[in-house]
Amino acid sequence: xxxxxxxxxxxxxxxxxxxxxxxxSEAGFRAIICNxxxxxxxxxxxxxxxxxAAKAAGIEARYVPVKSGMVTDDDVAAFGAxxxxxxxPILAYxxxxxxxxxxxxxxxxxxxxxxxxxxxxxxxxxxxNGVARRIVNGGKTxxxxxxxxxxxxxxxAGAGGISVAASLKSRKPGLNISVIDPADIHYYQPGWTxxxxxxxxxxxxxxxxxxxxxxxxxxxxxxxAAFEPQNNAVILDGxxxxxxxRLVVCPGLKLDWDKVEGLEETLGRNGVTSNYRYxxxxxxxxxxxxxxxxxxxxxxxxMPIKCARAPQKxxxxxxxxxxxxxxxxxxxxxxxxxxxxxxxxxxxxxxLMKYVAKYDATLNFFHDLIAVDGSAKTATFKVAKxxxxxxxxxxxxxxxxxxxxxxAPDFIRVSPLADAAGWVDVDQATLRHKTxxxxxxxxxxxxxxxxxxAAAARKQAPTVAENIVAxxxxxxxxxxxxxxxxxxxxxxxxxxxxxxxxxxGVLKPSFPAWAIDGATPSRAAWFxxxxxxxxxxxxxxxxxxxxxxxxxxxxxxxx
Length: 559
What we know:
Number of strands: 28
CATH class of the largest domain: Alpha Beta
GO molecular function: FAD binding; hydrolase activity; quinone binding; sulfide:quinone oxidoreductase activity
Cofactor: FAD
Protein name: Sulfide:quinone oxidoreductase
Structural class: alpha/beta
Oligomer: single chain
Shape: globular
InterPro entries: BLH_phosphatase-like, FAD/NAD-bd_sf, FAD/NAD-binding_dom, Prot-tyrosine_phosphatase-like, Sulphide_quinone_reductase
CATH topology of the largest domain: FAD/NAD(P)-binding domain
Distance between the termini: 57 Å
Radius of gyration: 24 Å
Strand content: 15-25%
Helix content: 25-40%
CATH architecture of the largest domain: 3-Layer(bba) Sandwich
Keywords: FAD, Flavoprotein, Oxidoreductase, Quinone, Transit peptide
């Protein structure tokens, strides 16, 4: 926890945890204001958790959530009302503290000279010059000039962002590149299923962001508010403006926890868990170990979602653990899938169905989770089968593993870069934006019809890098992405069905059948997942070493 003082009465900080509350109390704070919406990060405690800890420490708490980089006049008014409503001194927090500092700056601008505001925020480590420009400009951030300019700006430092930065640097070391991402920690999210299955420890899936940014690439620890592609500009939180010659957009997905009524309030207790949150994957394994009888639900929301078969993986590894302990006969496993099929590529279904039978799991299709009551241990689903009127059904549970609904981040969905559904609109082969020639996108946020997996980003990054380098040289795109995705389905501890496919469900095996037959559960595929893929991710993919990921040549370029 890093508390940054603005005045004697108001301080701001990055994300706090329940464990920080004793220190916050000792520092003399009488109230906290949360400016970060729940569900914004994979390792983020909910406001309810923070509020409970604050109440126990005798500290008042208020929830004034503000979308990342999108401070509105209404947000400023709500923040001002909260300041007036709670005792001081006050600690306001968000992901980095920038939103809170921005809200305070706008609020204070009504009564305090701007130079005084800029001096206070600068002393706390926040640059609010962009706020000053927005105020002077009548509430709009001007983008004709910028605070900084780069050859390439990359939005998002997840698997796609860091990989494409490294791939670009390996091709053109002299490029002036910045990566924009507010997160302190980078997660190997494919490992969370293994954490939930008792194979990995959570700490094995996390590294500091600063240790992974490629050498020579500038990391901008901030959130993006908006894009103004007509001016080649990105607006950051604090109303700062970065200009670019070329832009790469890959911020990942937003986990929409609050779309399921009651879910956020009960996550991490009452038998409600999810491998889609860093701090809950271990709770999944705890529940599996403790469970000896009862009903276990595993949910899958409507597509698209990242790692689309992760809900199944949780089911299989849990079923395997119960099978090995001899308690499976006492456990009713129910798979609640909003879709209508077990797996979208038919070649892999027979092998998976054998494990559905082994674990005696019931498949419930067209069941979309809409509410969870943790204390009552009930889950409500909207059942919308084809040619049938939708109905709601409520199911009791002893354990429920939830895969949350997922959407593109808010700042993407409202941007000029998005299609009608809210995804970045790209050519599915070149990954170049369909409207703006100097913008590319990769990873989970594009509208390309591929599986949203880290394996896809591993293939996409070199494609984007090749095409950007070609564009800099004045040439047409030269590389094509074929839709490759991989789903290592952990059907039992020690065996995996290695599903690899491209656009249209075309099989794309990386290995000969004698080495790994993807449609057959194998120990070789398990060895790949457990022992080889993590170091390949950390030491190859994120460092621009394109092992088995060289981009295909675009046919038009070849001709």
